[in-house]
């Protein structure tokens, strides 16, 4: 944009001053007419607007020469012939871009995302028009406005009012003739700065589209209205040594002389590599450019740039090179197209390094690519941020580097800057007459302004049925003597990870007997406790030492967890366990990813020796870091064992207490997976069957430990429940139990048991806060509990009754298994517990287990549940 | 009093309706159920009609308003001056 725009419009008052009653009424009438037209316009179809736009485009083409002549006559800027081209581009090229695009109703369907994009017109736009491209900008904006069903009030630059209003008239009359509502375009007569400000702030104006200098843009953005403010540039050009010099020089001349340089995207300073500098200047001279000497350059600096402001002089804008030369006293050939002035740097001390909307071009000789890019950055930052930049090169690396380093919405490669930036002529940029300059130019967009900027795009988002999964180990062998299946897995070297008691009672020997013959077998005995970092390290050292290709985890949850982590570190030594334990909300969207590249490979076979944790099929492992005093919980399906062996012979000797503790853990898994927000038909079938088996066989296994059938069924139940919660996760019961168990050293199953009746009642009640989940349809936890009660044959007629029956059945089972029925019964004093509750609540709330719970627990509710467990109110 | 507005001659039938507004007849119902699109002249005629009705203290209702037409009335802030009947 030109200096006159800057000077005249930078002072647009932000607060409207007092206008005469007559002018106020006039402006109000304009807005009301536009508002009515915009309202009526909302009823038009795509076919309606496409038909009208086509007629308008044809009218624009028919009138392109007349309007161009009017523009030159009135503004005394530019070249009539070039303005004809501009008018034609604004009509034909814009039509070509928009003709097949939907702008009414549904404009885009994205079925894979269940999304529809629907167009909503803005309504009334207030549009400021520039002096430099007056009629072409009108044609462009009118076509875009009708295509998008908007009404526009135009305020032309005072020195381009007649040609603009004539262009508006051509568009308006054609549009109305073809059915557009009357009042769709109006042109403010003799607009003043105050009137512009009044319209900018008018409540019924939906958007300001200000094409002009920084003052216009600033006024538009300061008005408090949504605005498209598109302003000044200062286009750097890098003429790199690999460029096709013939084409490059011609392109620069075409661009810089087009309409006498009035397009703000035109070239301002050409930075030329030293190797081709002389040759390039000779070509410019051969093709009609005048290369200024030092003295002539100084004359230009003093004359075409205002020494006070540092901006270009309005008198030079849009004038011919020969006229400028004559005016400033330079002697040039009559056919001179362009004045080229060598400069030594960029900034106020180098006046010609700024925007010059006339055929004066600065050139700079660069000794290296680095220097050339640096000078281009300087030009870019000297008033051209966000606008346009140009590079001529055949070196793709340099082109990309230029693109990365320069802040410009349009980076034009091997083509003329001004016409290239307009789009659709030399490239596939969107055709426009408004260049978004991004935040660098104080604009909201770097786009070539187009139809989509004249629309509110609504997105209709249908509920997505997220895909779910059911992932378990590939091979699960169960029932008595299932361990015999070990034989089918060939191994050169196997490490058996176990603990001392299991080795002592002969379990390791049983396993040894069934390992594939000729396998080197080593036994790694680890403590019978939650694995620590040190234990994992020892295990990994052993795996590396023996180059093991198979790990057999023989034990309860702790041993199997240890083996999972050993395998992870053995196969992927770089795995950072703390990093991998980062919290996540949705497994599919988690930030950290488990390693997929492996340096070693080992099969993990898990043989469970308790019936509860189900670690033999789960993707979880817990590690204790004594140094930091923290637990590291790992969760990823890559942790799941490759083979699970669920052989009841390894649980026949489980003591009663352990049978009860692990058994109730199994029941908690089934109950929580059953009502989880991630529950599916796949997990439900497992959860329900596990519940049925466990309710039936746990008391028998507890009371008659040698009952082989009960042991077998409970062992299966634990594994089946684990398959359910491996995929549906657990819930708030586990969050409470984890916090309480860790703080007071209570076994996991026992801690679960203390919470269980209270959590069922809690989840079955109408939640204070629903848990947002795309997986569930409504609140169904109480109904799921009711279904479980039916499955267990507990009776009851209503959902509520059935839930109560389920709670009662759980309580009876807990009594039968001789569980303490309150935390108080554990000997924890009320004072001690009261002191611990705030911390327990905090830890429970941080626990990821409840994220799949059907009811989102409030902190106060967690505290309440802890107290219920303390007092054992659930006991009958 | 119920007056039917014809889709083919909206402005004309609205002007007719304006002449029929009678305070003695009480509430006037304009049946616009056949109106599928309101043009500028129709909108202006409707504005005239509602102004005349208000002057005579006659309550105006629109029956069977197409939702696209309703949106036009909403955008020009006319909805508050009518009652709407389905």
Describe this structure in words.
The complex is a heterodimer of chains A (876) and B (86). Chain A has 876 residues and is an alpha/beta fold. Chain A folds into 4 domains: 44-230, Aldehyde Dehydrogenase, Chain A, domain 1; 235-426, 3-Layer(aba) Sandwich (Aldehyde Dehydrogenase, Chain A, domain 2); 469-650, Rossmann fold (3-Layer(aba) Sandwich); 656-876, Dehydroquinate synthase-like - alpha domain (Dehydroquinate synthase-like, alpha domain, Up-down Bundle). Chain A is built from 30 helices and 23 strands. In chain A, strand 3 (124-128), helix 6 (134-147) and strand 4 (151-155) form a beta-alpha-beta unit. The termini of chain A are far apart. Chain B has 86 residues and is an alpha/beta fold. Helices cover 42% and strands 16% of the residues of chain B. Chain B contains 3 helices and 4 strands; from the N terminus they run E-H-E-H-E-H-E. Chain B starts with a strand and ends with a strand. The mean pLDDT of chain B is 94.
Please outline what is shown here.
With 876 residues, chain A is α/β, with parallel strands linked by helices. Helix content of chain A is 45%, strand content 14%.
Q: Which helices and strands, and how do they pair?
A:
The complex is a heterodimer of chains A (876) and B (86).
Chain A: H1 3-9, H2 21-41, H3 46-62, H4 64-75, H5 80-98, E1 106-110, E2 115-121, E3 124-128, H6 134-147, E4 151-155, H7 161-177, E5 185-187, H8 193-200, E6 207-211, H9 214-222, E7 227-230, E8 235-239, H10 245-257, E9 267-273, H11 274-286, E10 289-291, H12 294-303, H13 321-328, E11 338-342, E12 360-366, H14 369-381, E13 386-392, H15 396-405, E14 408-413, H16 417-422, E15 455-461, E16 475-478, E17 493-498, H17 500-504, H18 507-514, E18 520-525, H19 533-546, E19 550-555, H20 557-571, H21 577-580, E20 603-608, E21 620-625, E22 630-635, E23 643-646, H22 656-675, H23 681-703, H24 708-728, H25 732-744, H26 748-764, H27 781-791, H28 799-816, H29 830-846, H30 859-871
Parallel strand pairs in A: 3-4, 3-6, 4-5, 6-7, 8-9, 8-13, 9-12, 10-11, 11-12, 13-14, 16-23, 17-18, 17-19, 19-20, 20-23
Antiparallel strand pairs in A: 1-2, 2-15, 21-22
Helix pairs in contact in A: 1-9, 3-5, 3-6, 3-7, 4-5, 4-7, 5-6, 6-7, 19-20, 22-23, 22-24, 22-26, 23-24, 25-26, 25-29, 26-28, 26-30, 27-28, 29-30
Chain B: E1 2-4, H1 10-20, E2 28-31, H2 40-55, E3 60-63, H3 67-75, E4 83-85
Parallel strand pairs in B: 1-2, 2-3, 3-4
Helix pairs in contact in B: 1-2
């Amino acid at each position: 944009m030109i200096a006159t725009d800057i000077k005249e419009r930078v002072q647009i008052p932000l607060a409207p001053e007092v206008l005469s009653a007559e002018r106020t009424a006039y402006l109000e009438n304009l807005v009301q007419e536009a508002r009515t037209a915009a309202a009526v316009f909302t009823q038009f179809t795509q076919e309606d607007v496409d038909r009208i736009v086509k007629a308008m485009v044809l009218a624009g083409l028919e009138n392109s020469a007349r309007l161009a002549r009017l523009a030159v006559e009135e503004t005394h800027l530019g070249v009539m012939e070039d303005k004809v081209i501009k008018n034609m581009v604004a009509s034909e090229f814009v039509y070509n871009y928009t003709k097949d695009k939907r702008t009414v109703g549904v404009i885009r369907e994205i079925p894979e995302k269940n999304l529809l994009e629907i167009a909503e017109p803005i309504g009334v736009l207030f549009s400021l028009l520039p002096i430099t491209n007056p009629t072409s900008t009108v044609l462009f904006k009118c076509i875009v406005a009708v295509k998008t069903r908007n009404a526009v009030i135009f305020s032309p630059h005072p020195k381009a009012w007649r040609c603009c209003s004539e262009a508006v008239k051509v568009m308006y009359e054609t549009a109305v003739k073809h059915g557009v509502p009357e009042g769709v375009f109006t042109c403010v007569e003799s607009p003043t700065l105050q009137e512009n400000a009044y319209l900018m702030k008018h409540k019924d104006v939906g958007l300001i589209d200000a094409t002009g200098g920084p003052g216009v843009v600033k006024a538009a953005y300061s008005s408090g209205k949504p605005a498209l403010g598109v302003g000044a540039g200062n286009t750097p050009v890098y003429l790199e040594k690999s460029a096709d010099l013939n084409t490059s020089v011609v392109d620069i001349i075409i661009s810089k002389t087009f309409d006498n340089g009035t397009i703000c995207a035109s070239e301002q300073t050409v930075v030329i590599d030293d190797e081709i500098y002389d040759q390039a200047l000779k070509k410019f001279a051969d093709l009609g450019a005048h290369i200024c000497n030092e003295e002539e350059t100084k004359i230009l600096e003093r004359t075409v740039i205002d020494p006070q402001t540092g901006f270009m002089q309005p008198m030079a804008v849009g004038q011919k090179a020969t006229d400028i030369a004559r005016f400033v006293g330079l002697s040039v050939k009559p056919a001179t197209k362009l004045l080229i002035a060598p400069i030594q740097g960029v900034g106020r001390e180098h006046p010609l390094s700024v925007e010059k909307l006339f055929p004066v071009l600065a050139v700079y000789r660069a000794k290296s690519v680095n220097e050339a890019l640096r000078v281009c950055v300087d030009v870019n930052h000297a008033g051209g941020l966000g606008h346009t930049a140009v590079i001529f090169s055949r070196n793709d690396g340099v082109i990309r580097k230029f693109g990365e380093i320069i802040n410009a919405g349009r980076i034009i490669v091997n083509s003329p800057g001004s016409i290239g930036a307009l789009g659709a002529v030399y490239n596939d940029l969107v055709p426009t007459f408004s260049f978004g300059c991004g935040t660098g130019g104080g604009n909201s967009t770097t786009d070539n302004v187009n139809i989509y900027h004249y629309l509110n795009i609504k997105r209709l988002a249908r509920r997505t049925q997220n895909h779910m999964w059911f992932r378990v180990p590939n091979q699960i062998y169960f029932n008595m003597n299932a361990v015999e299946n070990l034989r089918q897995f060939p191994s050169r070297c196997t490490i058996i990870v176990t603990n001392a008691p299991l080795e002592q009672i002969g379990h390791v020997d049983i396993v040894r007997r069934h390992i594939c013959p000729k396998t080197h077998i080593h036994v790694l005995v680890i403590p019978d406790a939650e694995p620590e970092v040190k234990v994992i390290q020892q295990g990994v050292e052993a795996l590396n030492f023996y180059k093991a290709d198979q790990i057999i985890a023989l034990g309860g949850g702790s041993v199997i967890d240890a083996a999972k982590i050993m395998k992870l570190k053995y196969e992927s030594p770089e795995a950072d366990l703390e990093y991998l334990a980062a919290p996540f909300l949705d497994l599919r969207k988690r930030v950290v990813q488990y390693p997929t590249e492996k340096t070693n490979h080992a099969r993990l076979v898990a043989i469970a020796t308790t019936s509860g944790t189900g670690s033999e099929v789960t993707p979880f492992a817990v590690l204790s870091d004594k140094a930091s005093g923290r637990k590291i919980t790992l969760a990823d399906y890559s942790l799941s064992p490759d083979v699970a062996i669920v052989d009841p012979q390894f649980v026949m000797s489980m003591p009663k207490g352990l049978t009860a503790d692990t058994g109730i853990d199994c029941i908690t898994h089934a109950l929580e997976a059953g009502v989880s927000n991630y529950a599916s038909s796949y997990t439900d079938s497992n959860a329900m069957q596990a519940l049925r088996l466990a309710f039936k066989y746990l008391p028998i296994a507890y009371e008659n430990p040698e009952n082989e059938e009960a042991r077998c069924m409970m062992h299966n139940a634990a594994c089946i429940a684990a398959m359910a919660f491996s995929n549906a996760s657990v819930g708030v019961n586990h969050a409470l139990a984890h916090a309480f168990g860790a703080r007071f050293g209570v076994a996991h199953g026992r801690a679960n048991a203390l919470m269980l009746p209270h959590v069922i009642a809690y989840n079955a009640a109408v939640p204070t806060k629903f848990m947002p989940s795309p997986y569930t349809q409504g609140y169904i936890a109480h109904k799921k509990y009711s279904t479980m009660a039916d499955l267990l044959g507990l009776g009851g007629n209503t959902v509520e009754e059935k839930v109560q029956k389920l709670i009662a059945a759980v309580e009876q089972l807990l009594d039968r298994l001789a569980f303490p029925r309150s935390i108080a019964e554990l000997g924890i004093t009320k004072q001690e517990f009261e002191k611990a509750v705030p911390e327990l609540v905090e830890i429970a709330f941080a626990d990821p287990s409840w994220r799949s719970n059907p009811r989102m627990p409030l902190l106060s509710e967690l505290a309440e549940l802890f107290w219920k467990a303390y007092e054992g109110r659930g006991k009958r | 009093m119920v007056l039917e507005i014809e889709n083919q001659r909206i402005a004309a039938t609205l002007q007719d309706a304006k002449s029929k507004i009678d305070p003695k007849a009480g509430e006037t119902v304009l049946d616009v159920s056949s109106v599928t699109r309101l043009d500028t002249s129709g909108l202006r005629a409707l504005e005239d009609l509602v102004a005349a009705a208000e002057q005579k203290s006659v309550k105006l209702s629109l029956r069977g308003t197409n939702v696209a037409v309703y949106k036009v009335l909403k955008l020009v802030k006319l909805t508050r001056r009518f009652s709407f009947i389905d």
